[in-house]
Design goal:
Layout (H helix, E strand, L loop, with lengths): L7 E5 L19 H6 L10 E2 L4 E2 L23 H16 L11 H11 L8 H13 L7 H12 L12 H9 L16 H4 L5 E12 L2 E14 L3 H5 L1 H4 L2 H11 L8 E14 L2
Antiparallel strand pairs: 1-4, 2-3, 4-5, 5-6
Length: 280
């Protein structure tokens, strides 16, 4: 019986890595008229009006009793100045989604990368650490890909010959497919900075780098590569749960308005974990 050779790819999502054609990777493709009529993005910011390139005062805000009658002509600014003000407001508003923890700094860092990075991919050791922590701490037997892989190894290793039969490789794919890939959509992610920076993910690849079997025990080294898009698509901004927040309105306009067109980018994360188990 042939043994599975390593390294070996166990799983790939249907969505591709580095898919720059994805809908949330568009930028600079919408006019003022489209933003206002289709997306209802008339009022974007408490600080500036990106359409007229003027600073706002407190009387300009929709909740102000004066906004409809006493609106004054604000100070004119350049488009570059307007973008800087919007990005500063974007960072300030993001803080309510990243209140605590070792990942709370990431959202402001990623907003700044959108401002200055010109669409280049983003990596950070904190993202890798968050991914590894998520995988290791997820002990739910029905969802954890790590726990499901452990069981699949235990059930399908040829313990007499100390190999994993190549013919049983599909069982590892089925184990992963039956679980939930690591995503940052847990309750705590609403406040620790990971929900706003990553939340869902776009593509995941899982590879087994090595497998050692001896004396009724095994140790597998498994590598996760996960990619997300730091960008918004049409469906995002049309949902009330996003459009009600100025943060997402500013984000969408900075990305999609044809007079700004700041590029979204790929967020890359990787983690290597050990999975161990024993013969049952």
């Amino acid at each position: 019986m042939a043994a599975l050779q390593f390294p070996s790819t166990l799983f790939k999502t249907q969505k591709w890595m580095d898919d720059y054609s994805a809908s949330d990777m568009r930028c600079g493709d919408l006019t003022e008229a489209q933003l206002k009529s289709h997306y209802r993005l008339d009022y974007i910011s408490d600080r500036v009006d990106p359409y007229t390139l003027t600073r706002r005062s407190s009387m300009d805000r929709p909740q102000s009793m004066f906004c409809c009658n006493l609106r004054s002509q604000g100070e004119k600014i350049t488009r570059q100045q307007c973008a800087i003000i919007l990005f500063d407001e974007f960072r300030q508003l993001s803080r309510k989604f990243s209140l605590y923890g070792p990942y709370s700094h990431l959202i402001e860092k990623m907003i700044t990368h959108m401002q200055n990075g010109n669409g280049t991919p983003f990596r950070d050791v904190s993202l890798d650490r968050a991914l590894k922590e998520h995988i290791i701490r997820d002990n739910s037997q029905g969802n954890s890909t790590r726990a499901l892989l452990q069981k699949a190894f235990e059930d399908n290793i040829d313990w007499e010959n100390n190999i994993f039969p190549s013919i049983e490789k599909a069982k590892l794919y089925e184990a992963i497919s039956g679980g939930k890939l690591p995503k940052f959509d847990r309750f705590q992610d609403n406040f620790n900075g990971m929900g706003i920076t990553v939340h869902d993910t776009w593509a995941t690849h899982i590879n087994i780098k090595s497998l050692h079997i001896d004396n009724g025990r095994f140790r597998a080294v498994v590598h996760y590569k996960v990619q997300d898009h730091f960008g918004l698509d049409n469906d995002d901004i049309l949902k009330k749960k996003f459009s009600q927040f100025h943060l997402f309105r500013i984000w969408f306009v900075l990305q999609r308005y044809n007079h700004f067109g700041f590029k979204p980018f790929m967020t890359n994360m990787e983690a290597t974990v050990e999975i161990t188990g024993t013969r049952k």
